[in-house]
């Protein structure tokens, strides 16, 4: 008993049995390395008390590991050609529910409500890379009760989520992720752990949700608008980025004054500011409105 997938032979066998052909547009790269699977499961710290949401189960490789560890697994897969395969590979588990749906169209908050009485869920996935950011931001911003997100992403994206000011990878995604969660890169994963092999390196990252945000800000929406505007034009100064934003409409003088109040010179760039400083800048600007 136990998981049967997670190695190249069994993966090829099941794919051939169903004459499955990979769909590039769905970002299908299936895991074929049991060590990586073990690492993901360990990092996610799943217990029998947990409900796990898996996004994109593929042929059910990681789902088998999750079903062994969790109380319940909900697996959301967009590709209907994978559904008959999943019925076979997961037939020995009675704690798995498969939903054939686009995860971006699914009301995950409602799902957690119905399936887990609104208690926080854990998200574990080898994500389809083309929608990494909308999936993660959707979970954080959509008021889904999530305790942690442990996911395989493109290595470069993992770096962007984890880094701070001064790094070339620092940007709006770093700040958004770090406002909601504490990132931790669990492992780097080379292309040969997947079938077919992706063109990019991958990494497993765990995002543990903060109980309360690490900074206090009066208007969250405004802060994220400011963050977006200041990283829109990387080579420009913070003040220029804010002046050129179509969604913020502060007079030049107000922006210049706010930057000064923050204790920064006029040539400061957005990429030098910490989350704390963006929060303070946001509060200064939101007061200037009135
Ligand atoms: N979990 C499997 C594994 O590790 O072997 C497959 C991972 S593969 C990188 C990503 C999976 O997400 C594919 O099965 C793909 O069909 C599915 N997928 C892609 N877009 C999706 C979407 N919008 N909603 C749900 N699943 C999606």
Detailed description of the structure:
The protein has 290 residues and is an alpha/beta fold. 40% of the residues lie in helices and 18% in strands. The strands form two sheets. A seven-stranded mixed sheet has the order 4-3-2-5-6-9-7, with helices on both faces. The protein has helices at residues 8-17, 34-44, 61-69, 83-89, 108-116, 132-141, 155-162, 172-180, 220-232, 238-243, 252-261, 275-288, and strands spanning 30-31, 51-55, 72-77, 96-100, 121-126, 146-154, 181-189, 194-195, 202-209. The radius of gyration is 21 Å and the shape is elongated. Strand 2 (51-55), helix 3 and strand 3 (72-77) form a beta-alpha-beta unit. It is built from twelve helices and nine strands. The longest helix is centred in the C-terminal third of the chain and has 14 residues, at 275-288. The mean pLDDT is 94. S-adenosylmethionine (SAM) is lined by residues 26-31, 55-58, 61-62, 76-79, 82, 102-104, 126, 128, 131.
Provide the β-strand percentage band.
15-25%
What is the alpha-carbon Rg in Å? Answer: 21 Å
Shape: elongated
Per DSSP E runs of 2 or more residues, the count of β-strands stands at 9
Query: What string gives the helices and strands in order?
Result: HEHEHEHEHEHEHHEEEHHHH
* Uncertain stretches of 5 or more adjacent residues: none
Helix content: 40-55%
Average pLDDT, rounded to a whole number, is 94
Described by strand count, sense and barrel closure, the largest sheet is: 7 strands, mixed
- Catalogue the ligands: S-adenosylmethionine
Strand numbers in spatial order across the main sheet: 4-3-2-5-6-9-7
- Structural class comes to alpha/beta
Number of helices: 12
N/C terminus separation? 66 Å
